[in-house]
Specification:
Helices cover 17% and strands 36% of the residues. It has 650 residues and is an alpha+beta fold. The longest helix has 27 residues. It has 4 domains: 105 residues, Sandwich (Immunoglobulin-like), CATH 2.60.40; 114 residues, Immunoglobulin-like; 114 residues, Sandwich (Immunoglobulin-like); 256 residues, no CATH class. The chain is flat.
Length: 650
């Protein structure tokens, strides 16, 4: 291996005399897919969907419209704001819209995204799309049809069809204005219902022809009965102007609250601490000063160890809509007073009864038989890949390999935490209220060149918090005099380079030629960045080992770069997550393993070489030492066996 390193060092040095690369803009794959909404009014948020968008200060973006506008030829540039690499937005003020011409009007022609790449002053443009956009000062709502059955619950979502609906935000809101009379079940007279305005939300994003409003308890209360009345749509624009549709009759039988199911498919009937348990039915009321929903459970908890506990508790769920509430398993309510929800393993069996209140009315629904399983605590971890992370890949020349690198990071994390109850997610979890977040970013905002930093407050022995955020700025940590910004920082990896890019980090004592052998072929200042076009014409092997690194042809060099970068980042994330879980030395004062032994994941940074982190030259992968692994299994238990037959000592 030593001869291999020397040979590649000579080749890399030869390449440095005449760099073949150019600045990697990432704009080669720039694409416009769609622009919405198709009808725009002052205050609208215009959403631009596409690929390979670029944020400032590297890129300044425009939406270019070329064509006809109400009989005139136009060629206009509207400034677009970067939201994500596949989304930009334009806030359509009246002044901005009038750049096209007077309102109302219709644009028909070519639309494309153009981006000024600031580093070299070049302009990149997407392939144009043919499109028609309508611009209006105001919209007149029209109500064509109500889509609902003859029987509804309180807060029933009622779908409407028509045209001219507002989408909310600065452009304004469409309201369903309902009035009529209500006859309670068993009552003889129809009691008057004064006018009630309920917000209408779009049935789908950007849809001005279909909306949904809730048959709110403000209309007819929460008790069973029959409603007869009318509904009118009202547009309240951002400038205060209002426009009404015509009347439509509506009549419903209203029935009382019911529970139809707890949990759902695909393991949704299993709960752990912090999980949102969906409860479906009808007639639920949002918690507030005027009322709310309570779930009364009576039954038993049948533990896997053979014991049984009587359970009689009231649970307060979170309102989603009239058909759904969620209960978050927590350590503060009545259920936690009966059993240890952090460690419980067993099944709740019994009756669940919904109770709803609103303005003095109280309704108790029928009992529903339920069975719901509890499992020990699971740590859910959301990996938040920031925009600065992807921009930092430009320095490595690997922006086009982003998805492969992310997958390698995930593979490393799942390997490191195998048989420990940790669940890694790449999107914000919707099924958990309580979860940890780790931010993978570009430069270190602390200015210290840190590879990673856990900025959570203090050692969390036992992982009591479950909701740590390793990333952003933590004021509590700043107050202690420690660096305030946490996360994993891509650009700090250049501390391992003998020739780091300008304006990143200085060369450090841990620098090694092996780092440059892996990444020099792709850096724009030393080689040729990987492009989307290049990837379309080759097959990049799926990396499983560093034994073939640095590689002798370009596809294997790419695979090696993916493997190494993903390994280093993944190992760093594993290390910082270990800190937030209470490691190292969870019951003592140390934050790292004492001494310097090979392949221990919680060793201090100076004790972990690049080769160990990258899994090169027979070193690595680093693992949790035996004592650390035993602790993690204690706080996050599973029934899975340790995949390793032997672990390093602590």
């Amino acid at each position: 291996m030593v001869g291999l390193v020397v040979g590649w060092a000579v080749l890399a040095a030869g390449c440095r005399e005449e760099p073949q690369g150019r600045e990697d803009s990432g704009l080669e794959a720039l694409q416009l897919l769609d622009v919405n909404p198709k009808i725009i009014v002052p205050g609208s948020t215009v959403v631009i969907e596409g690929r390979s968008f670029l944020d400032q200060p590297l890129g300044v973006s425009w939406l270019r419209l070329q064509g006809g506008y109400s009989g005139y030829l136009v060629d206009s540039y509207l400034p677009a704001t970067f939201i994500d690499f596949d989304r930009m937005e334009i806030q359509a003020s009246a002044e901005l819209l009038r750049l096209l011409g007077p309102l109302p009007g219709t644009f028909s022609g070519r639309i494309q995204v153009e981006v000024d790449f600031v580093p070299d002053g070049t302009r990149h443009a997407s392939v144009p799309l043919s499109m028609t956009l309508e611009l209006a000062e105001h919209l007149q709502p029209q109500l064509d049809e109500l889509v609902a059955g003859p029987t509804i619950y309180v807060n029933e979502p009622i779908e409407i069809e028509g045209s001219g609906f507002l989408l909310g935000g600065d452009e304004g809101t469409t309201y369903a204005v309902v009035e009529g009379c209500f006859t309670p079940a068993g009552g003889a007279s129809c009691l008057p219902v004064p006018s009630v305005a309920v917000p209408v939300r779009p049935a789908q994003p950007h849809d001005r022809s279909r909306g949904i409003f809730a048959f709110a308890p403000e209309i007819a209360g929460i008790e069973a009965g029959h409603f007869d009345g009318t509904v009118t749509l009202r547009n309240e624009h951002g400038d205060g102007q209002t426009f009404d549709s015509g009347l439509r009759p509506m009549a419903f039988d209203m029935i009382e609250t019911v529970i139809l199911g707890v949990g759902g498919e695909d393991g949704d009937d299993v709960g752990t601490l912090g999980r949102r348990v969906p409860i479906t039915g009808g007639g639920f009321v949002e918690d507030g000063p005027e009322g709310g929903t309570l779930l009364a459970f009576t039954g038993t908890f049948d533990s896997d160890d053979g014991t049984q506990l009587s359970v009689d508790v009231g649970l307060v769920p979170k309102f989603v809509d009239g058909h759904t509430v969620t209960y978050v398993i927590n350590e503060e309510d009545a259920l936690s007073g009966v059993l240890d929800v952090r460690e419980a393993r067993g099944t709740l069996v019994g009756e669940l009864v919904p109770e709803v209140d609103f303005r003095g009315q109280h309704v108790v629904g029928l009992p529903t038989q339920v069975s719901f399983r509890l499992e020990p605590v699971k740590q859910v971890v959301y990996l938040q890949w920031s925009a600065s992370y992807k921009e930092s890949l430009r320095l490595f020349g690997l922006r086009a390999l982003d998805e492969r690198i992310r997958q390698r990071v995930l593979d490393v994390l799942r390997r490191d935490y195998a048989s420990i109850n940790v669940d890694f997610r790449t999107e914000p979890p919707e099924d958990y209220e309580v979860y940890s977040t780790i931010v993978i970013a570009g430069p270190d905002p602390n200015g210290q060149g840190l590879l990673g930093y856990d900025n959570t407050p203090g050692k969390d022995t036992g992982n009591e918090r479950l909701n740590d955020t390793i990333g952003g700025v933590n004021a509590e940590t700043l107050e202690t005099g420690q660096p305030g910004f946490g996360g994993v920082f891509m650009e700090s990896l250049f501390s391992f380079s003998l020739n780091p890019p300008v304006n990143t980090v200085p060369t450090s004592p841990v620098a090694t030629a092996n780092f440059d052998l892996i990444f020099d072929p792709f850096r724009s200042d030393r080689g040729q960045p990987v492009t989307e076009a290049e990837l379309a014409g080759i097959v990049v092997p799926v990396p499983t080992s560093g034994a073939f690194c640095p590689g002798y042809d370009r596809p294997t060099q790419m695979a090696c770069a993916v493997f190494v970068l993903g390994s280093v980042v993944g190992s760093t994330v594993s290390h910082e997550l270990g800190h937030s879980l209470g490691l190292a030395d969870p019951y003592g004062v140390e934050f790292h393993n004492v001494g310097d032994l090979p392949n221990r994941l919680m060793d201090t940074g100076s004790a972990r070489s690049f080769e160990e982190r990258a899994e090169l030259m027979g070193q690595g992968p680093a693992r949790f030492c035996q004592g650390a692994y035993d602790y993690l299994r204690e706080i996050l238990p599973t029934t899975e066996a340790d995949p390793l037959s032997e672990r390093p000592p602590c």
